[in-house]
Amino acid sequence: MAHGHMAAQVVGVAARLSVADLLRDTTRTSADLARACGADPQAMHRLLRAMAGLGLLSEDEGGRFSLTEAGSLLRTDHPDSLHALVRLLTDPTTVGAWTGLEESVRTGGPHFSKAFGQDFFTYLGGAPQLSEQFNAAMSQGTRMVADLVANHYDFGRFTTVVDIGGGHGTLLAAILRAHPSLKGIVFDVPEGLEGAERNLADLGVGDRCTREPGDFFTGVTAGGDIHVLKSVLHDWNDEQCVTILRHCREALPENGRVLLVERVLPDTAAAGADELMYLSDLNMLVKVGGRERTRADWDTLLRASGFRLSAVTSLPRPQPFSLIEGTPVAPRPDQ
User: What is the pTM of this model?
Assistant: First the structure.
């Protein structure tokens, strides 16, 4: 476990050096790869050996390396690519936030703001390359669960889905493909929507989708009868979550629904549970000040926002997400 951060850096450097893209479906020596990416030959050989030890590469008797099935996920052109997600998780901003885990545990606040002088999302807005990387990583993470979400919830009873904080629209596209009668709106800050038009068109739903820029802390676009928020609320503290959900409640009709796609922590932590849930929880702590939540926590947030928790549906394993449905209750928070 203590060596885990070292393995993470091996994977991160491999992604930044485009090792998987350079290998693709062939075999190459370490010297050849070093020339291709401008690296020291001996150091490159040592990196490739470490990747082989981690199961990402295979080395033959002639000293040539090739990708394994796991290593292929670092290719940018792989349909299930994790390239952007790996780069984000091993980026200096993420690593820098985690160096302050002890301080965050002591204070309860995110170390990121202290390390970088501003909160993560403000920092992201002033860093175009990191913002692009973040959006791509979120899209990759969403792609792994999008079809499951689309097929494990009855979207057919609605007319217009609003994907709140939907970025490139990957989740919304999956929902619209599975339900041809639906229309959709992607709602996000302008930098979050960059790339959404092309992505939605590439996925064949551009004619049924509109993009609406906005800030969910000040309001949410009207016109939808179901709001979907995937991995949005875990970024924020309870007070901020209530603000977002109340804006959803204000924009939804009485027969509308809010659907949260989030992790649901078990009431009691136990060995053998999904440890990534708890690591994600600490990542939210050190980076943005958010948290993962139990069913009781989600129930409390929804009740404080004008909803009642009407259903929780776990997606099939190994996916760690659940579908948390909120049904509006009267009166609305603005009434």
Answer: 0.89
